[in-house]
Batch of 2 targets.
Target 1
Amino acid sequence: MHVNYTGKLAAALLISLTLAASCAASSPIEESTGNNSQKSVTEPAVDAAASVAIEPTPNPCAGANPCAAVSADSGVSVAVDESPAETQAIQYFVDGNGLAIRGTDPVAYFTQGGPVAGRAEFTHTWSNATWQFASAENRDLFAANPEQYAPQYGGYCAWAVSQGYTAAIDPSAWRIVDGKLYLNFNRGVQRRWERDIPGNISKANANWPGVLSDS
């Protein structure tokens, strides 16, 4: 009887140890499963945050008007006409003193190969603008045929007119093409205009003089 009782006790003890070992082995599996479950929840949240579309920052220089800033070439600031009615009455660009080409002799571009300052004693009024000349001879040449010597597009920047607006000019930014005088805002803009002179002249011709009412 004592032997049987001892055997049963040993068997019960063995079963208890087996169950305890089984429970201990199952615990890491449950913890791992719990971690995987948590990961499957957080990953979509990260992906969703990463997939939010971020609008690009606008380029402040996109479509910038090259005549809208002061150039080191000429030091002339922009003076875009803001009074279309007055501009149509005075077809030619004038400075604050009412002088065409800022007082530069238009004839000198053709006879002396560049800008020459006019003098107050040699003036001629044409197209509601005052034109100054370096000599009486140049004044008389202009008076006899002003359209031969006057700059194209009312003396406004040739590049600006080709782009559909008007801008002031620098007398030193000039070029004669096919016997016609073209002026530009400054030498930097002049170089841009010169990249395609025939094309820019064609576009400006199409815009002129309608651009006056659009400016």
Target 2
Amino acid sequence: MLSNIINSKSIRNEILDFIVNILIDVNEKIVLNYFNKLTPKDIDIKSSTDDFVSVADKKSEDYITKKLSNFLDNTKIIGEETAFLDKENFLSLLNEPLLWVIDPIDGTKNYINGNENFCSMISLVKHSFPIASFIYKPLQRQFIYAFKDIGAFIFDIETKISTKLNLKVDPLNQIIGSGGTKGIPEVFRKSILSNLRSFTKRVFVGSAGIETMMLVTNKIQFVFHGRVTPWDHSPLDLIIKEAGGCVYMARFKEEFNIKSKGPILAATNSNIWDEVREIAIPQSNLYRKRLI
């Protein structure tokens, strides 16, 4: 049955090959063809003045959706751009026992501005929890993936060899991380942002997928986001955990699922997770209380 699909190594390999080909093809045929070539009429605003969607996002999501709909007899698919257009259908799909979740261009603002920090992501979700996730950074042809309880891997596009990822636990003079606080109520957001700025070194990336790649390749030690989405955080959650990292919802230390709400924190290990959480949202902070 599909619900047990990743238990079979041969089918895991079939899934990997299929997703690798989809993500390479969609980037070669659509995403990279529009990169640095978008005009103002190719770009729209979604929920706010800094939330963009381009014609490349829409076309690439449509391409991926059509390819996935014929694969493994699983036709239930959530895409970031179609979810924005049809909220009712999006909410109903969250209850499906098995579905694909797509982010055709993660880091759209970077993509529009000619910044290389963008990627394409696909996840397979079972009963709200990710069981397989794939991220492809096309300009560098970097591909990482994970299967639940199997591990996280770097996949070499040329040699077709997978190398298992293992996070290092090197001691650091200063904790380095990425992310933001958007989505947290303003009454708490300012203090959380101030705490992170004061006691950690933060780098701006602008893409959850790229941040995930950076964490599992030991370039940063944490990612903190003020809100979650199925398409951004299914890959972040699964790949970082399968690489040996620690990921929980930041307020109450609950496991992420695609219905989760609120801030999320991912870290190289549980010690760094606890330390960053205490920095960002100290135990005395009312935001840690369930009454809020």
